[in-house]
């Protein structure tokens, strides 16, 4: 929920209740000058209420759609309340109201207006309470979504770390395989050289034996 909106909301509720009391008290005034001063106060208060309504509207429309819908529903209640206040002020400040109407307002009409106004505010308070409950449920859902999102991110991070570990192990295995291949090549080369050396040694021994036999032959047949 927007803290800015809540601040304007508190100001409006206080101002609305104050204006309602002023309308009721203005209707009971008999002094023309005092009544006119009271009317000026009420008119200035209604203008301030209009400004607060516009500020709440601007702030609500700048928020995310889920929050904006809740705040705009609240705002409709406040606009309806302000229109009711304007009608009360227009009726009280009407220059065509005669003395009989004023007396009737003082004796019975004032109570009716106050009762209707209180009834309207009670309905508005109930509507605001329901909207607050809906807002709380929406905020709770958002918190649940955020917690689920954080859990998902944590799981993804764990999976990423496990993947990195597996890739590292895979690279190590490749390094071991490369070392084994190199060892095999070295052993194969050594085996080939040993085989070659065996043939050379065997050939040398055979040649030596042939020379010895040849020398012995010559000695036997020429002695």
Mind explaining what this structure looks like?
There is one protein chain. 93% of the residues lie in helices and 0% in strands. The chain contains four helices and no strands. It is rod-shaped, with a radius of gyration of 50 Å.
Alpha-beta classification: mainly alpha
Distinct helical segment count: 4
Into which percent range does the helicity of residues fall?
A: over 70%
Strand content: under 5%
Q: What is the element layout, followed by pairings?
A:
Layout: H1 3-28, H2 32-61, H3 65-92, H4 99-222
Helix pairs in contact: 1-2, 1-3, 1-4, 2-3, 3-4
Short description:
The chain is built from 4 helices and no strands. It is an all-alpha fold and 223 residues long.
What descriptors fit this protein?
single chain; 223 residues; mainly alpha; 93% helix; 0% strand; rod-shaped
């Amino acid at each position: 929920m927007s803290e800015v909106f809540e601040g304007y909301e508190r100001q409006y509720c206080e101002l609305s209740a104050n204006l309602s009391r002023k309308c009721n008290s203005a209707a009971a005034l008999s002094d023309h000058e005092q009544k006119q001063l009271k009317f000026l106060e009420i008119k200035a208060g209604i203008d301030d209420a209009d400004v607060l309504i516009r500020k709440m509207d601007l702030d609500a429309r700048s928020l995310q759609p889920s929050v904006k819908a809740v705040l705009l529903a609240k705002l409709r209640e406040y606009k309806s309340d302000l229109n009711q206040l304007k009608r009360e002020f227009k009726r009280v400040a009407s220059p065509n109201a005669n003395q009989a109407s004023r007396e009737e307002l003082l004796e019975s009409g004032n109570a009716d207006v106050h009762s209707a106004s209180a009834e309207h505010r009670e309905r508005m308070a109930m509507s605001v309470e329901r909207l607050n409950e809906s807002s709380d449920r929406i905020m709770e859902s958002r918190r649940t979504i955020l917690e689920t999102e954080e859990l998902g991110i944590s799981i993804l991070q764990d999976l990423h770390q496990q993947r990195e570990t597996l890739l590292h192990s895979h690279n190590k295995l490749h390094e071991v395989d490369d070392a084994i291949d190199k060892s095999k090549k070295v052993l194969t080369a050594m085996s080939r050289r040993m085989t070659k050396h065996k043939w050379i040694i065997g050939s040398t021994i055979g040649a030596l034996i042939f020379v010895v036999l040849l020398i012995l032959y010559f000695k036997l047949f020429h002695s």
